[in-house]
Design brief:
The termini are far apart. The radius of gyration is 15 Å and the shape is elongated. The protein has 66 residues and is mainly beta.
């Protein structure tokens, strides 16, 4: 039997605010979340509003390449 391509893929979401403004000197990194998306339903890049512990507020987290 032939294997078919999986519709669900794992994606990494990264804070867009930290990248633009630069991370504060006291923080140790950039906020990242791991989630899954359905490739057939959302073919474009995923953007979700999540909490960033380095910015101390809810910001837009965009999908990045692995």
């Amino acid at each position: 039997m032939a294997k078919r391509k999986d519709a669900r893929v794992t994606v990494i979401l990264e804070c867009t605010s930290c990248i633009r403004n630069g991370v504060k000197k006291g923080s140790t990194g950039i906020s990242r979340y791991i989630t899954q998306k359905n490739r057939h339903n959302t073919p474009n890049r995923l953007e979700l509003r999540k909490f960033c512990p380095y910015c101390f507020k809810h910001t837009i987290h965009g999908e990045i390449k692995k």
